[in-house]
User: Fold these one by one.
Assistant:
Number 1:
Amino acid sequence: MIDMSEQRVLVVGGSSGIGFATAKLAKSLGAGVTIASRSPEKLSTAMLKLGDGVQSSLLDVGSDDAVAKFFEDKEAWHHVIVTGSEVSMAAVRELTMESAYAAMNSKFWGFYRVARHARISPGGSLGVIAGFLATRPVAGRALMGAINGALESLVQGLALELKPVRVNAVSPAVVATEMWSGMTESARAAMFERVAASYPAGRVAQPDDIARQLLLLACTPYATGTIVTLDGGASIA
């Protein structure tokens, strides 16, 4: 059992999905948890669910000034985990350049900005969600594959640059989160069923699956520069 007592954990994107599951699990393990998001509404909803002992803060990782200001007057964290991003997925010739730039700015440059400014205790960790498309290209998802590949490479470079802070990533396949809320319930269920049938694990991931791996990496002193492909076997299917 992981013990995170007396450890301060910041989950960027902690108001929903994988981030919320990570914040909830870290709290249950004894950590002092802060969730950050650019959405006040999502933060309020998440705080009601997480209960006492969790703090929240507005943070837009799309702004370097905002990220710098967020960290400048705060005590160093033991672990900072970046899970939130807003991306549009479509084929290259169907995706507008504005949407493509926005996806890169949110998922890649957002993490880059946090890595630049986050104050993390020596021996602490910085974690991020990448994705299995980095090594398993899929038609219609070329941009996502490129962003995930760039993140994985950045993580390994940062592990050398930021030591003794440790830097790691988890790369999942399809996770059942609010990311798919734009689909109808029946279409979403059919998609999950179809994808699950194609994975050796026989199911899509739940946010808790990814949260456990993120915190295991955070609490393993030997883990740095590590990319864990946690994809239900999708990349070998």
Note: The mean pLDDT is 94.
Number 2:
Amino acid sequence: MRVPAAEAEIARARMLPLAPTGFEEVELGGTLELAAYTDAEGAERIATAFGSVSSTAVEPGWEERWREFHRPVRAAGLWIGPPWEEPPAGWPAVVVEPGRAFGTGAHPTTRACIELLAGRARGSVLDAGCGSGVIAVAAARLGFAPVLAVDADPVAVEVAVDTARRNGVEIEAWAADVLTDELPGVDLVVANIELHAVERLLIRRPASCVIASGYLAHETAAAPGWERVARYELEGWAADVVHAMT
């Protein structure tokens, strides 16, 4: 199925429960094509969710082709990749199993957040909307502590805990809605979520410093009482460091 590029994040989130073992993405100008391997029932569920879709028969070996999409990336001196890839010698690794929760580390907003995170003073950090826990584990790798993580999806919380365990780091994760539930006091919050959710979160003043992302480079989170002090742009996406104004 194909969706406008502006709806890519929503489409990915919608695809996750429909194709939990992974799906492919191809950028086609102003659109994004998503492709999943499934059976007739799965194709019907996807068609119901997205409307117009097309399907073709697959050739032998399709079971492993989805792995070709998940390639290692690097951010702030960290190697981030799937478990079947080998990190280069000397690089601290963040190993992420793709599939059950959003976030493999490859998306530009994730890498931009990690780049900005590396430049902040070490202390306590909350990954607000943690998904697979990539940013939380990266924070632990970079020396932040304690590292806390929340997500409204209990499955994402389980995956984040598994990701931390796989990487041998400690995080505390639990299910919570970052827009309505009580959040712990921390030195820094990282919110790589959707633009309007970022704006609603900032209104809550979850910390004096927030790294916010999940939106395009031409967009800015609009929330009163905050000052942008740094920005990192990558492949048309942006992440900002904002400070609460006194």
Note: The helical segments are 8-18, 40-50, 62-65, 108-118, 134-141, 154-167, 195-203.
Number 3:
Amino acid sequence: MPKPGETVGDGKLFEAFGGKGANQAVAAAKTGGDVGFVGCVSNDSTGSRMIENFNVAGINSEYIKVNSASVSGTALIFVDANAENSIVVAPGANETVTPKVIDDAKEFIENAEIIFMQLEIPYETVKYVCSMAKKAGVKVMLNTAPGRKIDNEVLVSVEYLILNETEMEIITGKTLSDDNIVSLCQELKNTGTKNIIVTLGKKGCYIYNHYHPTKL
């Protein structure tokens, strides 16, 4: 990884469709799920290619809004020789996913079996969807990236909470270690979240739910 002021050569550039929400939508569609995507893209070439890619994957793109935001959401991912990564997100059109966009897809959302979200859209929108889902009895899976503090009113609405080590520390305000991972997961579960999945990079992941903690 480059240090401040440093230029690193011999890199390899690879461009692909992505985003946590988009990746999960495509994966669910490929395994036979009936999937729709709610969000925003810019009226740039990336946005049109994203919608085309969703359609090819069999995903309902009816609720994707196209607007004049500067760019469609983009992530720049640096991966080192040990497969550790660092990510910089340029939200672009993702910042325009407002509660109004959600209202236009209200019936679709309320009739879903499960909603997958992440924090690359405005936090007020995440809270709005969680409230809507709770009232409608729809399960929510939330990936807490990019990391930020999460309100209890959101956590109590989440069926599956996915977070990495850094995000765990941001949310709980405590340093994560092998010795306290169970207690921190229990702390989160006490807020109402039913299933906690902590991703641990090359060490795999740790799952904590009402059955028992499991390390994979």
Note: The first strand starts at residue 39 and ends at 42.
Number 4:
Amino acid sequence: MTRNIWTRLRVHDWYSLVCSFDPEVPSRRRDIPARTELPQERLKVKVRGFLLAVKDEPDNDLHVQMGETSAFNQDQLVVEMPPGAEFCNARTELVNLMREDGARSFRRHIFNDPPQVDVTGYVFLDASHMTARRSDFCTQSGGRGIRGDVPTSPVRGIWEIHPVMRIDRVRR
């Protein structure tokens, strides 16, 4: 199975890409294949942006919110790192960036000085967050995300980068 890679994407490019996928995806959760990937999920991407928030999920995935700029109040995409040896380097780099930012807990952290990074991984539609009778997967939040001091979730879309294979800090 061939996997294509799109590199040098910014967060706004990510949304242009995944919004173009919405008409191609079934609008009902039960029609999303559970044991095989969607054709769009064969796409490997490298997206540059700022790490804004991190949450350790009950399944031990690290749920990270990423934006175009270092401001918290903006559209944010979710990138996730599962546990396991093949994701250890990406998870270690994330934890190092959190420590540098003064994180006191690795369960939940909003970055004070968001680092700019390149995140490499695969496109993934998190169908568990699909809303009934909606097919705007690139805009709905799926009811998730760390809100910080904004009134509603800044997460935009249920398309994610998952799994994340690499995180590379961009030196300013």
Note: The chain has one domain: 5-169.
